[in-house]
Write a structure and sequence with these properties.
Elements: H1 3-20, H2 24-44, H3 54-66, E1 72-73, H4 74-81, H5 89-101, E2 106-109, E3 128-131, H6 133-138, E4 146-149, E5 156-160, H7 167-171, E6 173-176, E7 181-184, H8 189-200, E8 216-218, E9 231-234, E10 236-241, E11 244-249, H9 256-268, E12 274-279, E13 287-291, H10 297-307, E14 311-314, E15 319-322, E16 325-328, H11 331-372, H12 379-382, H13 387-397, H14 411-418, H15 422-426, H16 430-452, H17 454-469, E17 478-479, H18 487-490, E18 495-500, E19 505-507, E20 514-519, E21 524-529, E22 533-538, E23 543-544, E24 549-555, E25 563-569, E26 576-581, E27 592-593, E28 602-609, E29 616-621, E30 631-635, E31 641-642, E32 649-652, E33 656-663, E34 672-677, E35 682-684, E36 690-695, E37 701-705, E38 709-713, E39 725-730, E40 736-743, E41 748-755, E42 764-765, E43 774-779, E44 785-790, E45 800-803, H19 804-807, E46 810-811, E47 818-819, E48 825-831
Parallel strand pairs: 8-17, 26-31, 41-46
Antiparallel strand pairs: 1-3, 2-3, 4-5, 6-7, 8-9, 9-14, 10-11, 11-13, 12-13, 15-16, 18-19, 18-20, 19-23, 21-22, 21-24, 22-27, 25-26, 25-28, 26-32, 29-30, 29-33, 34-35, 34-36, 37-38, 37-39, 38-42, 40-41, 40-43, 41-47, 44-45, 44-48
């Protein structure tokens, strides 16, 4: 064979190979897209029409086929569903359990697991289920269902179920597909119905998730459930006592087991200090967190939120399938489409019903004519040779009544008339027939009216659902606004910071070096050197910081109350400058300079003041010809506080021999203004809630509780307060408290006057230890008056006026007090005092520059409670 022929054959073979070879990239593109489309449409993402994934829809359809009112084994339901769902029994079983745990569409029987503890359900052969009454009413209607063949072509299954309720938002969904995911959280049943009604009425509405595990949530960044939003969810933590915290609700998606594991992990890392954890969870969550000695319960609560799963962040991603394509829309839009779909489905059902009623009226009318006119006895009808002649005769006889009928008379109508039995003809009653037709006409008119007024009809449908199924479906998750917890403020000081000035090292592992302070492993450290340079770095086991160390401490970000007072010598001019500044935020490990940064500059005096204190300095100059005054004093309080980059003011142009502290001053920042936010029961400095006053030094906050106890707190913003607060205010030790209480043991009313004992942090029961004792009233008025109204056998007795200051002297809070009367009391009322003191002024008599107080003098800044009337005034305790 010639070389030319050989080459030609090779070229032909190459062309044939090109036609037969499919390259991997092409296979990947086609097959991957097919697989991704299948997973998105058939497994992970719900359809907007009914809010169900395919497996859920098939389960519900299979259960409807099996439904006879009794429970079925879940194993049998799985087998029935496998006729429609081409996957294993495990995936179907898991989907059934998830549906059952939501307690909406499925009535379950047996051990279906526990959402709170994470325990799984029993095997499918041991548990049973049936459709709930709600599911039977809302999900199914064969007449309005679009059908398709099952995967093997043997049966029909619904394309989507005709759901007349926002089921997708009620149940929520969590699905991960290929290239996208869908995550929507469950919403409250009644709130969804209310929102649907508001939308149909043209009103605005808001929708926020309601988690089955309860807890509290901050939805300020929810973003309508679309991508980019976030929800902060917290467990419910209460103080059982100062050494025990109790967790009664867990965040959504977490279990008691995972929550306890996160607490143990945080404890092992030294973020919190926990002595013991007891899990008493059964039907309700109850986790007891017992604290180590010397640990603040308030800070531990914040630390649990900061370092454990007691607070988590959830990211919604509302993605649905519409017209076989994924679509990202907000929760409000999903509800609107659901309400519109419900309206259209109800309208379609009405139109079908109208058509059926019209058919019923049509045949009943024909039947009435056929019998009344005795058409069945016509000789021509009886003598008909075949069916066609009989049909033609009947059709001709019906001719006079055809204009009154709603449609044409068909052959099928006539054949149906011919099938009427003689027994029915003999029982025929004209009046009953007319009544029957009238009833059908009235029903048709009602249906037509509902179609014309479909929006009010749909609203009634939702109201019917709420009335029938909404009982006991109250919101479980509390909607709150959370303040950001700064982790460095609440972390346990689990490390000790040391510094080796000689070698220039600092760290937590230098046990033999100089102790600086307690710290945590997430703290930042600020370091000042004598040359004026300073920087902030993270705490570590050991780090080199330089041998000319001047100051080292834990750094507090955004702290404007820690003021640094500095005198430095400028290396270029030789002048001495003084400055006061704060350091709020810096870039970690970046060096800054207190001085002008010139070569040879150095700090000659330095002090760090946690509350802006300013000192008076004594400055001694070096002797110099014609320099008469070698010593002078400088009050730094006269300097303005500026930023860290300011140059400062000139202290002197002469050479300094020595600078020493003459006198330590007070804070130049003034007191700290504190407010109490009754919504979150927390203190703040952001003008939120009730103003308590300006605090500084050893000032304290007094809290009086409705249970007849008081407690003194410092004004740390991290303090926690119990919800049964009667009064919270700035503590004034000169005030005298007058209290009236009912002694449960003696069954009499007592009054006592006492000064508040300054014991910070201790809960003082000033009405006695008996838990049945009841506080009646308290007042700060110096000369209070009480009016007693008698009841029972002494009802005719005149009211008695008691001058409390004359009735009883000032004693300790431990004293029992003095019995008000031996007679049965109906009411005790505080009345206007005769002798007034300056502190007894009513709110309108206060100076204009004072914050307004509550309308009740003895309940300053008292949060409104359930016992208050609409004006915020306390109702009678009798």
């Amino acid at each position: 064979m010639s070389e030319e022929n050989t080459n030609n054959n090779e070229e032909i073979q190459d062309e044939q190979l090109k036609d037969e070879v499919t390259y991997l990239s092409g296979m990947y593109r086609d097959w991957f897209l097919d697989y991704a489309s299948y997973v998105i449409l058939e497994r992970a993402v719900p359809y907007i029409n009914d809010g169900l994934k395919p497996v859920q829809r098939r389960i519900l359809h299979a259960m409807r086929e099996m439904d006879d009112g009794r429970y079925n084994k879940v194993a049998n339901i799985i087998g029935q569903t496998m006729q429609y769902h081409p996957h294993g029994d495990a995936s179907i079983g898991d989907a059934i359990v998830q549906l059952g745990q939501k307690e909406l569409l499925i009535d379950s029987q047996g051990n279906w697991g526990n959402l709170l503890t994470g325990d799984g359900a029993a095997a499918p052969r041991y548990i049973e289920a049936r459709l709930s009454k709600f599911a039977l009413e809302v999900l199914f209607n064969p007449k309005t269902t679009e059908w398709k063949l099952s995967y093997d072509g043997r049966k029909k299954e619904p394309v989507t179920l005709p759901v007349k309720f926002p089921l997708l938002l009620a149940q929520g969904v969590d699905g991960i597909a290929v290239g996208l995911a869908s995550k929507m959280f469950p919403h409250n049943f009644n709130e969804l119905i209310d929102a649907s009604i508001n939308y149909l009425k043209g009103k605005d509405f808001e929708l926020y998730p309601d988690f089955p595990t309860g807890g509290s949530a901050d939805f300020s960044k929810y973003n309508d459930g679309v991508r980019g939003g976030s929800i902060k969810v917290r467990a419910k933590i209460e103080k059982q006592d100062n050494k025990t915290l109790i967790i009664t609700e867990v965040p959504y998606g977490k279990t008691t087991t995972s929550l306890i594991e996160s607490i143990i992990k945080a404890n092992d890392k030294g973020k919190i200090k926990v002595k013991k954890i007891d899990d008493n969870t059964a039907e309700n969550v109850e986790i007891l967190v017992r604290l180590a000695s010397g640990v603040s319960s308030d800070k531990t609560i914040d630390a649990l939120y900061a370092f454990t799963d007691c607070e988590i962040s959830l990211s919604p991603n509302a993605c649905i399938i519409e017209n076989d394509k994924p679509l990202f829309i907000g929760v409000k839009e999903i509800l609107k489409r659901s309400a519109d779909s419900t309206k259209e489905l109800l309208k379609l059902e009405l139109e079908i019903k109208k058509s059926e009623l019209e058919e019923q009226w049509h045949f009943s009318s024909l039947e009435k004519i056929f019998i009344e006119e005795r058409i069945y006895k016509d000789k021509k009808f009886e003598d008909s040779e075949n069916m066609d002649q009989a049909v033609a005769h009947i059709d001709k006889r019906l001719e006079p009544w055809k204009p009154k009928l709603k449609r044409e008379v068909t052959r099928e109508d006539i054949l149906k008339l011919m099938e009427i039995r003689m027994a029915r003809i003999l029982k025929f009653n004209k009046d009953k027939a007319n009544d029957h037709l009238k009833a059908i006409e009235d029903e048709i008119a009602e249906v037509v009216n509902n179609i014309k007024n479909i929006v009010p009809y749909t609203i009634k449908w939702f109201q019917h659902l709420k009335a029938k199924y909404g009982k006991g479906r109250d919101r479980k998750t509390e909607i709150r606004s959370f303040e950001n917890i700064v982790a460095s403020k609440v972390v346990v000081k689990n490390e000790k910071l040391y510094v080796d000035r000689k070698e220039g090292f600092m760290g937590t592992s230098l046990k033999k070096a100089e102790f600086v302070c307690d710290c945590s492993d997430i703290d930042d450290i600020i370091i000042f050197r004598r040359d004026g340079s300073y920087y902030v770095t993270k705490v570590s086991d050991k780090a080199f910081i330089g041998k000319n160390l001047l100051h080292i401490a834990v750094f507090k970000k955004n702290d404007k109350r820690t003021i640094y007072n500095v005198v430095y010598k400028d290396g270029k001019t030789g002048y001495y400058y003084m400055k006061r500044f704060f350091v709020t935020g810096v870039t970690r490990d970046k060096e800054y300079n207190v001085t002008k940064g010139t070569k040879g500059s150095r700090i000659t005096y330095f002090s760090a003041n946690p509350n802006g204190e300013a000192e008076t300095l004594r400055v001694v100059l070096k002797p110099k010809p014609r320099l008469k005054k070698l010593t002078f004093e400088e009050d730094l309080s006269e300097l303005a506080i500026k930023g860290k980059q300011s140059m400062g003011n000139i202290l002197t142009k002469y050479e300094v021999h020595k600078i020493s502290l003459k006198e330590k001053g007070v804070s130049t920042l003034g007191g700290r203004k504190i407010w109490f936010d009754p919504d979150v029961l927390r203190l703040n400095a952001d003008n939120r809630g009730n103003y308590l006053g300006e605090f500084m030094g050893e000032d304290k906050i007094l809290v009086l509780y409705k249970s007849g106890e008081y407690q003194l707190y410092n004004y740390d913003l991290s303090n926690h307060f119990e919800p049964n607060i009667l009064c919270i205010e700035k503590f004034d030790k000169s005030k005298i408290l007058s209290a009236v209480y009912f002694d449960a043991e003696q069954q009499f009313y007592y009054v006592k006057r006492f000064e508040i004992e300054e014991v910070e942090g201790k809960l003082i029961p000033f009405i006695g230890d008996n838990p049945d004792n009841k506080l009646v009233s308290i007042t700060w008025v110096h000369y209070p008056r009480l009016e007693l109204t008698f009841g029972g056998k002494n009802e005719e007795r005149d009211n008695e006026i008691i001058e409390v200051a004359e009735f009883i002297g000032v004693k300790s809070w431990k004293a029992k007090g003095k019995r008000l009367t031996n007679y049965e009391v109906k009411n005790i009322k505080e009345i206007e005092p005769v002798v007034k003191d300056e502190d007894d002024r009513e709110p309108e008599e206060q100076a204009d520059d004072e914050p307004e107080k509550d309308d009740i003098p003895f309940e300053v800044n008292r949060p409104k409670n359930d016992d208050d009337d609409d004006n915020g005034n306390q109702m009678s305790l009798f």
